[in-house]
Write a structure and sequence with these properties.
Elements (H helix, E strand, L loop, with lengths): L1 H100 L1
């Protein structure tokens, strides 16, 4: 009878250890899943940050190009005005010279 009690106690102890191991294994699996999920989220966040940096750089280049185009346009308009002024002066001088002869 004592042997039966001891055998039963060992069986219960073994069952409790198995249950504890099962719980630990389950927790370990959940931990691994969480780690993978975190790694996936970290990778996604890193990819999004890289994409944002590329977009920011592209936007910055576009702004630089727009500023350069504006500066070039201003320069061309100034040159056109200067040429028009020079032509007007030449025309005025020619007109004055023509009036002096007549």
């Amino acid at each position: 009878a004592e042997f039966q009690v001891e055998k039963h106690a060992r069986a219960e102890d073994a069952a409790m250890r198995c249950a504890a191991l099962g719980e630990q294994e389950s927790l370990h699996c959940r931990l691994e899943q969480e780690q993978h999920a975190c790694a996936d989220e970290s990778t996604l966040a890193s990819e999004l940050l890289s994409e944002l940096a590329r977009e920011k750089a592209a936007s910055s280049r576009e702004a630089d190009v727009a500023r350069a185009a504006e500066a070039l346009q201003d320069k061309l308009l100034l040159e056109i005005r200067e040429q028009e002024d020079a032509r007007s002066q030449e025309a005025a001088v020619a007109f004055s010279a023509g009036m002096g002869r007549g």
